[in-house]
Amino acid sequence: MTVIGGAETRARKVRWSIIDIVVVVYALIPVLWILSLSLKSKNTLTDGNFVPREWSIQNYIDIFHTNEFLLALVNSIGIALIATAIAVVLGTMAAYAIARLDFPGKQLLVGFSLLVAMFPQVSLVSPLFEIERSLGLFDTWPGLILPYITFALPLAIYTLSAFFREIPWELEKAAKMDGATPAQAFRRVIAPLAAPGVFTTAILVFIFCWNDFLFAISLTSTTRSRTVPAALSFFTGSSQFEEPTGQVAAAAVVITVPIVLFVLFFQRRIVAGLTSGAVKG
Amino acid sequence: MAEIVLDKVTKRYPDGALAVHEVNIEIADGEFVILVGPSGCGKSTTLNMIAGLEDITEGELRIGGERVNERAPKDRDIAMVFQSYALYPHMTVAENMAFPLRLAKVDKATIERKVTEAAKILDLTQHLERKPSNLSGGQRQRVAMGRAIVRNPKAFLMDEPLSNLDAKLRGQMRTSVSRLQKQLGTTTVYVTHDQTEAMTLGDRVVVMRGGVVQQVGAPQFLYDHPANLFVAGFIGAPSMNFMPATLADGQLSTPLGQVRLGDEVRRRVEAANAPRDVVLGVRPEHFEDAALVDEASRARGTVFTAHVDVLESMGSEKYAYFTVDGEQASSAELDELAADSGSVDVPASGGQLVTRLSAASTVTEGVALDVWFDTDKVQLFHPDSGVNLTYAGK
Amino acid sequence: MTGTTRSVPAAGQAAPIVAQGRTKAVLSEGKRAERRLGLLLCAPAAVVMIAVTGWPIVYSIWLSLQRFDLRFPAKREFVGLQNYLTVLSDGYWWTSVVVTVGITVVSVVIELVVGMTLALIMHRTLVARGLIRTVALIPYGIVTVVAAFSWKYAWTPQTGYLADLVGPDKAVLTERLPALGAIIIAEVWKTTPFMALLLMAGLALVPDDLLRAASMDGAGPWQRFVRIIVPVMKPAILVALLFRTLDAFRVFDNIFVLTGGAQGTGSVSMLTYDNLIKGLNLGIGSTMAVLIFIAVAIIAFLFIKGFGAAAPGSDQGGKR
């Protein structure tokens, strides 16, 4: 590619800028629309205008005055955090073993987690519904945390073992030669190096748990453990007689905030994490 | 410090492939032994078995008189320097060197003292607080050495420790590794595929091929008396010239003309019960510009005439390349050496002859030259088994 | 120097000598510790995954062989394959199958094209590369239900900006084909960036030198794309396709919010949910669950067999 002069470069930059703007518009329109809806006053809610004509934060005030939303938010945060923590710990252990150790049944585990990754979640809804009812787990936090861990584990294992594989293998040999047991080699050499990967995986797993809808509406029945995505679809709003559009929009914006923050601050890591497992398993 | 004994040590992988076959080596206390051979010859596997990073399938490994086959690496008290240095990227230089001592629960003051000491020996004192990523290749290599020496292990194992350095630095480090080993007097096993390192560093060299030890001995001995074609071709740069020859009545018909063997050589060849067809091997330095050879020497050698294809003048000497008519010597071992040419100079291929002439020679490219070679120094090899028929050891 | 040994090299090729009798290697302490640690570390993850998927799927097969309606628990009995006959001869089931397959095929094809374009843009752009990647992650990260609501309100007459575009009297979400179109748009918007990221990772594997060489050989941009880029990144494309196809086949959230499955827009997941949670018919719900499981297994099998797709993890993970 020959760059003939500044003019050419500028022309190409302009062309790319236009393309980039199209991408930005594509990605942001639905997000901006729901934000705009949430900020419309009651009178202008149904004016169909993309930008609010009258700004108002009344919808936000309203949802934070309902138990329905507050409890759901607490459930969402609690369940997602606990499930993420457990899935990442278990996933780290398993991924380390898969990437670094030689033991019987390794291929079986890798194959099985691939199977789980492809598993149609709806197939689990019926048996889990019945099993959880008989175990008393239905409509409880553990009742959601368990399936979340399960479906997050393949993601965690793949992402982490890809990260672990990038750590030079000789370091562990070196640690062994320096007198470390396998457990010490893990704790003192591999774990500190793997920390960024673990963190990235935690973000991905959190997004996954935060996102779930199917389990959330199937395995819960009350505000005791209903998460925000599920609660949204049951929203009645403060008054019986109107569509709770504004409040749904406000609640939707609230649960989008953490996602936007993750994406803004950890874009590079998330991209690395999402693609690491896919390119070269 | 201890002696290391490999007693019929064998490595067989679960799929049945034999990586190392009955290796017997006795490494004396304080000795510097080099394992050398083309890639895939089993030298690294052997080193890893000594380290405890790979299991020994059969045979026994003794360090300081004790069987250690079943011991984990950490219980063998040996240190290793890796090709990639394997420095812990999240630790500073000081922390890297202190790591084995911390694992061994050595007290803080001792760690401090030993690290400082090692840093001084290796000239790393001013880099102690830096991370490995901020060091140059040579400095990293020294940190890896430092991590090995701080805890006074029974032995050092080094897996191609200099191969990631550029040529100039490698030469300098080679000298300092040698000096350090002499200073500490620690038993050392050193794996390399660089035959210059093999020749210059070790007390003894172990040449391996296909998992089997070919020959063990002092570097100069291996150079002068290779046990077989493989060792002859592997040791020495540029490597030995090989060509097919026919033996009859103490006379050798070669592409370079008829050669009358010296009495000593003839006696050995007869004792070895040599076949008619053999492979002739002549080292480049055993050739000379015939004009520079005195009468007495001329009498015990053979002179032939050939056109100089390429002449490389090195200042101190001249390398002249000739093309030899006729067939080339062929053997499985020569093929293997040629295949490994990525790391070893190819034995004269395409019927090419490499000769090292005195700098005083006035030869130029493209002219016909009378070349003399010393028939007392030639080596003859069995074309099938590769055995040196003129072997003078023992 | 007396320690000179001389051993005769093995005749012929230096090929590894194959062991005669196989002797069981005595594992050293280090090796045994490694095996123990490996199993120990994997055990919790394996137990959780098996407990939450393996056991329920078996239980689900068992439930599918029974008449089991929670509204009439007394009538629970073993009926063999009766439920399967009921489901497979049911028009609603086949409608949902057609809808699911339709949504899957159409959305995956669009995603592949748009995703590839987006991947090329993210890979090549001269300006604001970081910004583009960040922005593209938003649809991936956003909660599907949130996005679905955004689309729903956008199509709602009077409220939405899109509803006005298609005409004041049209209620997109209440007519079958337009509603399916809206569902597909929502799916495509949400998952294309993910597809693009996977494809972009594949693009990064295409060496620049290869493209330069192709230009020197006279290949234009389109030829470079078709002849060089696509073949080199084929594994990445197949992995992306496999994952997205299986994912699209499970489509649920968007349908639930946008149409609730009305007007024949329900997917198999939607129908199963309706039977199970709304209808409380565990027998029929489980039967559908098993059928979906089988369908997904067949899709995965066809992909891996048919395309020889290198599924992640099919390599010898961590083999030395």
Looking at this protein, list some descriptive labels.
heterotrimer, A: 281 residues, mainly alpha, 11 helices, 75% helix, 0% strand, flat, C: 320 residues, two-stranded antiparallel ribbon, 13 helices, globular, disordered N terminus, disordered C terminus
General description of the model:
The complex is a heterotrimer of chains A (281), B (394) and C (320). Chain A is mostly helical. Chain A is built from 11 helices and no strands. In chain A, α6 (141-166) runs parallel beside α11. By secondary structure, chain B is α+β, with helices and mostly antiparallel strands. Chain B has helices at residues 43-51, 93-103, 108-121, 137-149, 167-184, 195-201, 219-224, 229-234, 263-271, 295-300, 332-339; strands spanning 4-12, 18-27, 32-36, 58-63, 66-67, 78-81, 155-159, 187-192, 204-209, 212-217, 241-248, 251-254, 257-260, 277-282, 287-289, 301-313, 317-323, 352-358, 368-374, 379-381. Mean pLDDT of chain B is 88; it is low at 342-349. By secondary structure, chain C is mainly α. Chain C has a two-stranded antiparallel ribbon with strand order 2-3. Chain C is globular, with a radius of gyration of 27 Å. Chains in contact: A-B, A-C, B-C. The B-C interface holds B 12, 14, 16-19, 21, 24, 26, 52-53, 55-58, 69-73, 75, 204, 209-218, 221, 227-228, 230, 332-333, 336, 384-387, 391, 393-394 and C 1, 3-19, 22-23, 25-31, 33.
- Kindly estimate the percentage of residues of chain A that lie in beta strands according to DSSP: under 5%
Task: List the helices and strands of chain C in order.
Answer: EHEEHHHHHHHHHHHH
Which runs of chain A of at least 5 residues are low in confidence (pLDDT < 50)? Answer: none
Structural class of chain C: mainly alpha
- Tell me what portion of residues of chain C adopts beta-strand conformation: under 5%
Order of helices and strands of chain A: HHHHHHHHHHH
Number of strands of chain A: 0
Q: How many helices of chain C in DSSP terms?
A: 13
Distance between the termini of chain A: 34 Å
